[in-house]
């Protein structure tokens, strides 16, 4: 089939450069280039080399090495993270699991925009801390993760693979070890046509030259002789960027804010060490024996000479003078034989971007609203500006709809413009478009289908098309689309067809929303396709400790104006709601209406955890997805559409006390859980931590990582201990062992560590069955530790003063017992409790035993 000019240009760009979408294409301020950055880009045209760095999680990558390879050696540099970091903790907010994975995906993309790398993923889900690769491979689908890794290698054709971790226990995490083991297997499999032959319809086998392990100080013993390792200095200074690679790396790594990895810059020599794992031996450089000049492709010698001429004649005061030379290089690339297709495509894209920069072009498509619905109208503004003396004409505008899997779902607008863009005089045009009725909502592609604990389910969509304008005319080009990509493709791209110096050029720009924040200034966010109505259930888990009804709020949010319908709850057997359904009427777009359902367990409701669902019906169509905004200043605003479900819990629960003071740490949903079981919860500020103010509370609970995030606790600790001494009860949830604001967080010494129990259903031993925490007001049994999610606990103390009593013991397979999941001490008239149990995960998930344990903790001494 023949394609529109838009589709040909867009898809040709995407099939080999989808990772470039992480930059200008996804809700970022338009990229601008300094004259020195243009020169760096020109120099990169003459480097034909590629490297892929491989590790397990966001933040595992060596940002200094990536910055050096991408900006110093000018290589195509990629980072393949096996996971999106979904199983970690969140230092900046309450988001966990899938929501945290979205945040960390965007943090990786923010990092790559700074250090110059490209980002890739596999389908592996970060299911939480794992102590061995063997355990990891029982949860990950090893063959599928390996296939994903091979796919990226075959597509990106790296000359060198580099792993962050060794393939053994030194890696410190089962995912780390697994990533290194998989990289070694992928090194061989990528070049073997018998491995994953289904990929060979779209890519060719590719054999990297060698695989290295990038070792470092935390893998090497003090005083170890490093003479056997290959080394390089990655701490150099790049005068064209005005920064050292250590300075670039610090800014890049500091984007991992949800993990608390703000970094200081390093300057001067910084040696990186490499151990050969597989492939040809290298004696002086990572790329020994790799021809990274144009000599490596047939017919490339002449191209290299022409690029040299463009570089030699480059005028930093007038970059547009290089456009003619770049167009000649582009014309020569189009004549290269099929065997040069990979580097032809890579460098074509680089040339087009350099021409854009040299002309000082600004092409933008701005949506007048941040969201739209399928079949909805949307006003847009088109901007075009030429800031050079080179004649530029805007010929055509096309605004189609490209679904997340590249399927064209409608050509919404196409217009012949044919306007000369006079230097520094902006062209502005307003238009109205219609979003296609079949357009999917903007849910991240890896969250659209239900996967497993260890793997996301990703559609392996194939797009078949031909590109008439391609130099290899008539060739059938087929590529997988989504697999490996860091995020959704832009919903709508506007194709600008321009004519510059007699040549036709195509530029695709994302349709995005621009606003001005009075503090942050100009901000961009993706245009998001939303359902006509979103359904949000208030709260996380609804807990019934008796048979009395509870009010469950359901909020309807309009994706467009004039949405009417009804909403109902789907309840499990034995439960009932006073109203079967409730009507709603939303007159305006983004309007919200909250309705209240009264729900209670009936005589047939079973003890334990189940779930309820909310479903809205509009014009006979059911909608059951919510609307969740993730907004932080360091990443573009993300909107998720989780299913409108909530845990429903019926349990036998007794409690003592009533008033709880809660000091939030890094952010969690524990206060809501306490309210669900009947407590009055007051959120405390640091200035509230005084003995006189605290005496009104039956217990004071500190949120997760409070001693890592609240600097004032260093001076307020005596006040907390005075509250305990006077008869109060303090419950401290887990604290990360590194970076506490004071050396001792309790009334008596304890040493925090990284110890944890990762098997969520690990058997529990009660060390002191008569301990009040196990008996009052609720009798705790082994059943209370059933149904836990992801992990049992983390950051257990490794040693403690004898004045602390231990309560329970458990351990992961093959490990000694860990007895410090709960430590409790009498202090004066009161009690101090430290717990590493993962209550912050279990309570929102509706785990009954977690509620009973927390109730006993806050009831202690009452």
TrEMBL record:
Q: Which Gene3D superfamilies match?
A: 3.40.50.880, LmbE-like (3.40.50.10320)
Give residue ranges for domain Alpha-galactosidase NEW3.
564-618
Signal peptide range equals: 1-27
The alphabetical list of record keywords is: Signal
Q: Does the keyword Signal apply?
A: yes
Q: Which SUPFAM superfamilies match?
A: Class I glutamine amidotransferase-like, LmbE-like
User: Can you say what this protein is called?
Assistant: LmbE family protein
Organism name: Hymenobacter elongatus
């Amino acid at each position: 089939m023949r394609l529109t000019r838009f589709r040909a240009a867009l898809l040709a760009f995407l099939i080999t450069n989808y990772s470039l979408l992480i930059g200008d294409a996804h809700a970022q301020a338009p990229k601008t280039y300094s004259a020195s950055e243009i020169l760096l880009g020109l120099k990169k045209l003459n480097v034909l080399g590629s490297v892929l760095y491989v590790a397990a999680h966001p933040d595992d990558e060596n940002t200094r090495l990536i910055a050096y390879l991408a900006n110093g050696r000018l290589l195509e540099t990629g980072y393949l993270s096996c996971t999106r970091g979904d199983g970690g903790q969140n230092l900046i907010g309450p988001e966990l699991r899938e929501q945290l994975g979205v945040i960390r995906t965007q943090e990786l993309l923010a990092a790559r925009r700074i250090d110059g790398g490209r980002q890739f993923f596999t389908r592996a889900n970060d299911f939480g801390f794992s102590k061995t690769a063997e355990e990891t491979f029982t949860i990950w689908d090893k063959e599928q993760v390996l296939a994903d890794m091979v796919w990226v290698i075959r597509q990106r054709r790296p000359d060198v693979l580099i792993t962050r971790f060794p393939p053994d226990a030194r890696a410190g995490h089962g995912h780390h070890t697994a990533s290194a083991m998989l990289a070694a297997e992928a090194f061989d499999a990528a070049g073997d046509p018998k491995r994953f032959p289904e990929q060979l319809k779209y890519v060719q086998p590719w054999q990297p030259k060698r695989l290295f392990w990038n070792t470092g100080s935390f893998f090497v013993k003090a005083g170890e002789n490093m003479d056997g390792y290959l080394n390089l200095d990655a701490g150099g200074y790049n005068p064209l960027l005005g920064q050292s690679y250590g300075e670039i790396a610090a800014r890049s790594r500091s984007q991992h804010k949800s993990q608390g990895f703000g970094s200081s810059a390093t300057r001067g020599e910084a040696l990186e060490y490499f151990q050969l794992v597989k492939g040809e031996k290298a004696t002086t450089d990572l790329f020994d024996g790799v021809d990274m000049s144009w000599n490596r492709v047939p017919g490339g010698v002449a191209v290299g000479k022409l690029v040299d001429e463009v570089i030699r004649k480059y005028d930093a005061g007038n970059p547009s003078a290089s456009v003619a030379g770049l167009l000649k290089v582009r014309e020569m690339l189009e004549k290269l034989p099929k065997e040069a297709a990979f580097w032809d495509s890579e460098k074509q894209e680089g040339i087009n971007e350099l021409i854009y920069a040299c002309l000082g072009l600004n092409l933008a498509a701005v949506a007048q609203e941040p969201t739209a619905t399928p079949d909805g109208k949307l006003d847009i503004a088109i901007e075009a500006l030429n800031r050079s003396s080179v004649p530029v004409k805007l010929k055509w505008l096309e605004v189609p709809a490209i679904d997340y899997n590249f399927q064209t779902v409608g050509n919404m607008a196409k217009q012949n413009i044919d306007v000369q863009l006079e230097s520094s005089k902006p062209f502005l045009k307003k238009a109205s478009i219609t979003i296609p009725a079949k357009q999917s909502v903007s849910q991240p592609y890896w969250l659209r289908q239900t996967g497993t604990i260890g793997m996301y389910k990703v559609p392996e969509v194939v797009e078949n098309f031909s590109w008439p304008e391609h130099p290899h005319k008539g060739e059938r080009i087929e590529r997988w689309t989504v697999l490996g990509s860091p995020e959704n493709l832009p919903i709508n791209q506007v194709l600008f067809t321009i004519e510059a110096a007699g040549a036709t050029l195509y530029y695709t720009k994302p349709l995005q929303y621009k606003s001005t924040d009075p503090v942050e200034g100009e901000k961009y966010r993706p245009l998001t396709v939303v359902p006509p109505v979103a359904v949000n259930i208030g709260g996380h888990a609804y807990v019934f400790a008796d048979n009395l009804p509870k009010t469950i709020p359901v909020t309807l949010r309009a994706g467009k104006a004039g949405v009417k319908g009804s909403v109902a709850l789907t309840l499990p057997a034995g439960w009932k709601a006073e109203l079967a359904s409730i009507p709603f009427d939303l007159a305006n777009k983004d309007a919200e209406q909250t309705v209240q359902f009264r729900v209670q367990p009936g005589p047939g409701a079973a003890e334990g955890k189940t779930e309820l669902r909310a479903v809205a019906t509009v014009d006979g169509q059911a909608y059951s997805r919510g609307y969740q905004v993730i907004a932080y200043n360091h990443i573009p605003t993300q909107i998720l559409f989780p299913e409108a479900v909530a845990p429903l819990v019926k349990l036998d629960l007794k409690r003592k006390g009533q008033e709880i003071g809660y000091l939030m740490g890094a952010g969690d949903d524990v206060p809501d859980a306490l309210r669900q079981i009947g407590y009055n919860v007051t959120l405390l500020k640091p200035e509230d931590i005084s003995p006189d103010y605290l005496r009104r509370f039956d217990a004071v609970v500190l949120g997760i990582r409070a001693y890592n995030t609240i600097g004032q606790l260093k001076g307020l600790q005596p006040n907390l201990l005075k509250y305990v001494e006077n008869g109060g009860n303090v419950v401290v949830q887990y604290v990360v062992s590194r970076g506490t604001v004071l050396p001792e967080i309790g009334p008596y010494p304890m040493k925090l560590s990284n110890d944890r129990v990762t098997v969520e259903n690990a058997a529990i031993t009660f060390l002191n069955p008569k301990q009040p925490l196990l008996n009052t007001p609720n009798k705790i049994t082994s059943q209370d530790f059933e149904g836990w999610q992801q992990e049992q606990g983390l950051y257990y103390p490794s040693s403690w003063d004898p004045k602390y009593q231990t309560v329970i013991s458990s351990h992961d397979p093959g490990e000694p017992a860990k007895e410090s999941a709960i430590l409790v001490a009498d202090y004066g008239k009161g009690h101090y409790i430290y717990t590493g149990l993962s209550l912050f995960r279990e309570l929102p998930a509706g785990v009954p035993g977690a509620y009973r344990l927390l109730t006993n903790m806050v009831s202690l001494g009452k």
